[in-house]
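CHAIN AND CONFORMATION:

***
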Amino acid sequence: MMSRILLAALGLALIASQAAASDTLRCGSQLVSLGDRASEVLQKCGEPVSRDLLGYKRSANRREEFQVEEWTYGPSNGMYQYLRFEGSRLKQINSKRGN
């Protein structure tokens, strides 16, 4: 019984650590976080391997449109990092193992 509880706790801790990792990205000794400006990310992480324009998105009040981009970094230890910017603000960080 005790081993099941320990196993469940370890599983939850692993899930929590993976979720937290998607809010930040380490670039050398620097950290970038959701909400950072594209210029800050560029300064801390350098030029990405690629930049893809995904399109445009309207603001909540539909009065303005802003650009949506995805930047790719890597591979670093076999992992690629995909950063999604909306209106020059970092909105999402995803990691994927390269082939």
In short: The longest helix spans residues 2-21. The chain has one domain: 24-97.
